[in-house]
Amino acid sequence: MRVTSSMYYESLYGANNSKLSKELFDVNKQIASGLKIQYAKDDVRTFAETMRLDNELSTIGQIKKSTQSGYKLSNQTDVVLNEFGTTMDKMRTLLIQAANDAQSDTSLDAIAKELRVIEDHLKNLSNTSINGQYLFSGTAVDIKPISDDGTYNGNDGSLKAFLGSNSQQQYNISGDDLFLGEEVLTKRTITTNVMQSNLSKKYDFASGADNETLPTPLKQSDTIRDMMGDNDNSSVPANDHYFYIRGTTSSGEAIKSKVSMQDDDTIEELLKKIGEEFGNTPNLDVVNVSLNDNGQIVIEDKIKGSSKLDFHMVGAVDFTGGAAADVVDIDALDGGENDFNKIMNGTSTNPNLYVKEFIKSGYTPANGAASNIEGLVYDRTAFDKKGSSLTSNIPQIVKNYNTSTTPPTKLTQNAFATPSTKISDVADLSQGTADTLDGTQFTLSGTNVAGGAFTAQIDFASAGSTFSLDGGVTNYDIFDMSNPRVAVDADEMTYQQLMDVVNMVVTNNIPTLNTEADYDAKASDSKLQGDTFLTYDGKIKFEEIGTAHTNATLSMYDSNSDDFAIGADSSVLSFNSNNALTITDPKTDFFKEIDEMITAVEDHKNYPDASRGSLRSIGIENSIAKMDELQEHVTRTHSKVGSQSNALTLSQERAELLEISTMTLRSSVIDTDLAEASLTLTQLQLNYEAMLSTIGKVSKLSLVNYL
Questions:
Q1: Per the count of CB atoms within 10 A, which of 166, 171, 681, 705 is most buried?
Q2: Residue ranges of the alpha helices (H) in 548-609?
Q3: Would you tell me the Gene Ontology cellular component terms (predicted)?
Q4: Whole-number CA gyration radius for the chain
Q5: Chain-centroid distance, C-alpha 362
Q6: What is the spatial distance between Cα 337 and Cα 334, in angstroms, rounded to a whole number?
Q7: Closest CA to 586 of 15, 291, 181
Q8: CB 278 within 8 A of CB 301
């Protein structure tokens, strides 16, 4: 075969020209675009790696945006809580000033007014918003968290920033935590509110003469005779004194007992017996029981985190040596004298039976209960009436979720009963029939919205619970929601079913027939006139619809409440009571407690004093202790905000480092190395020129060159 020049040309130029042209085009494209490839087909591995890194950068961008947004809100929360702390410090300073005995009534009034201004400022801080979103409403960011009356309207939801796969960081503090949170390390402390003086020093028991202008407060070393008095100067024979004790232990068990003491026993011995009723033993105290400087009984729970502790006591003595003070039904003491001064000055209609009150609350006794001596009644008192509403004063707390016997969980912060909570989960099932509500009976008494008196009873039964208004003659089933509908098992009855009955009775919508249809119809009709519900702090409340002032009254209590016979059961549940005042408690109700503090200053009370003003005022001294607890709570919450801000800052810094690292890696994968590309371009250009030079020479070849 003859070799021609065209064959040389084609062999050297045809193949190499196409290849070099493509390589030159590619390297120029890389230099122009700055990218190694343009399409997946250019380099599948590089394209896949680039897409993965792009996704990573997109995720990091979301993290940065989320953390930046969260940090803004968290930082603003930090600023607001700084102001909170400063404002509360000022309020505490004013309370300390108010506690000074040198303050005049005018000065106290001025301090009280300043405290009310501070209260308004705290409410304004609580309603702080940023970009139209309230800081302390939980996830309900469009709802104003604090009403004018201090009620919290938000929820306990958490706002969280996205920090990556399966990683989030909360950046808000809900008002539920700040204003209604629970401090599981706090011990509940309660106090009586009737000041007790040494009657032996004040009166000459024989003549009745008043020896003191100012009474001498009782001390623990004083005797029972010093506390309860006498009607002669002889302590022989010794009088028998009886103390009727009611309350609830920190574990939620109800107590009801009668303690007998004599004249020469000391008050310290009585306090010891009270402690034993709450569970104190020679080897272990679960409560501390003491007297304050005004002779009032103070009980401190030594178990942290419980809000159950409650106390009530009334004392009685028959100066004739008879048995009038030793009763089974506490209502039998109603005819006694509760004003010792009347016994001494001869104006009492019953000078021999003296009944001493330790707690007064201003509550009206229920229908049929003792009425002459308010402090005699514990849990048969009428709900507090205000305008169109009736409200109980004892929160319904699920027992198992409010003790320190187990590590605290989220449930401990919301242990109040809800409409779906079973009554058996709150009641003390150690009373009555063990471990069941079967056989328990509640009494409802008062007046309905039309002003008519009623006395109803609710009978809990495993075979089906009922209610009646005629002493059990005509019973109406309390229907459950099963299919078919039947009367609810005692231990399955919920608060909603109980409140449905209350609502029907108070609005006077009573079933005509004992049928499911009539029951549902009357329950529905009753809701058109009134609503019975649980408040945010677990208390039962009735509100009449369409009126500013209701005619209704209501009391609800265990039917054996007044029975002090030996072995008699205590109440399985209490709803409203003439109980001790709360000084400190694990559960926070921020603005309610602030209001209590200011009320104490407005009433000019250094200590609880049921003889004047607001009977349930805790006093300025106790307000200072309560303020200390509130400040600690806010400080702990503020610390949480600080940790959240720090976590968000660290996340932001980490995201920025990851972004730089990922961008660097992406650049190494996809971006053109201009130096390398320029060198490659130069080499390709040289190769191309060499190829062209060679082709030029080949094209000049002839047979003469080979001769």
A1: 171
A2: 590-602
A3: bacterial-type flagellum
A4: 40
A5: 26
A6: 8
A7: 181
A8: no
Instruction: Band the pLDDT of 651: cuts 50, 70, 90.
Output: confident
Bond prior to 484 in cis (omega within 30° of 0): yes
Q: Which of 234, 205, 241, 225 is nearest to 346 (CA)?
A: 205
Q: What distance in Å separates the CA atoms of residue 315 and residue 226, rounded to the nearest whole number? A: 13
Q: Identify whether the C-beta of residue 183 lies closer than 8 Å to the C-beta of residue 632.
A: yes
Residue given tokens 């702990």 in the structure block: 636
Q: Is residue 70 within 8 Å of 161, Cβ to Cβ?
A: yes
**CB atoms closer than 10 angstroms to residue 592:** 14
What is the rounded distance in angstroms from the CA atom of residue 598 to the CA atom of residue 91? 10
Distance CA 368, CA 682 (A): 111
Instruction: Provide φ and ψ at 101, rounded to 5°.
Output: -60, -20
Residue the block writes with tokens 């099963």:
482
Query: 204 with 211: CB under 8 angstroms?
Result: yes
Q: How many CB atoms lie within 10 A of CB 6?
A: 10
Average pLDDT, rounded, for the chain: 87
- d(CA 478, CA 465) in angstroms, rounded, equals 6
Backbone angles phi, psi at 502, to 5 degrees: -60, -45
Phi, psi of 185 (to 5 degrees): -95, 0
Tokens for 657? 């480092």
Residue keyed to tokens 């190494």: 668
Could you give the C-alpha distances from 559 to 227, 445, 680, in angstroms and in order?
32, 11, 100
Structure tokens at 699: 């094209």
Distance of CA 211 to the CA centre of its chain: 49
AA letter at 430: S
Tens digit of each residue's pLDDT (9 = 90 or more) over 10-19: 665 666 666 6
Would you state the pLDDT for residue 659?
A: 78
Quickly list DSSP for 28-91: HHHHHHSBS-SSGGG-HHHHHHHHHHHHHHHHHHHHHHHHHHHHHHHHHHHHHHHHHHHHHHHH
Backbone angles phi, psi at 388, to 5 degrees: -95, 10
For 85-105, the pLDDT digits (tens) are 999 999 999 999 999 988 899
pLDDT band at 72 (very low <50, low <70, confident <90, very high): confident
244 phi/psi in degrees, rounded to 5: -100, 110
Q: Which residue has the tokens 């619809």?
A: 545
- Residue 255 CB partners (closer than 8 Å, separation 6+): 245, 246, 247, 248, 249, 277, 278, 570
pLDDT tens digits, residue range 146-185? 999 999 999 988 888 877 777 788 888 899 999 998 888 8
**CA 692 and chain centroid, separation:** 89
Q: Given this model, what pLDDT does residue 365 score?
A: 81
Look-up of token digits 């009367």: 487
Please give the structure tokens belonging to residue 274: 């009270």
Question: Shortest CA distance to 412 belongs to which of 169, 156, 224?
Answer: 156
Of 137, 155, 160, nearest to 70 by C-alpha is 160
Q: Where are the domains of the chain?
A: 1-32+686-707, 52-181+625-658, 189-378+578-587, 399-558
Q: Hey, CA dihedral for 247, 249, 252, 255, is it positive or negative? A: negative
* Type of residue found at 234: S
Residue type at position 457: Q
For 478, half-sphere exposure in the C-beta direction (CA atoms, 13 angstrom radius) is 30
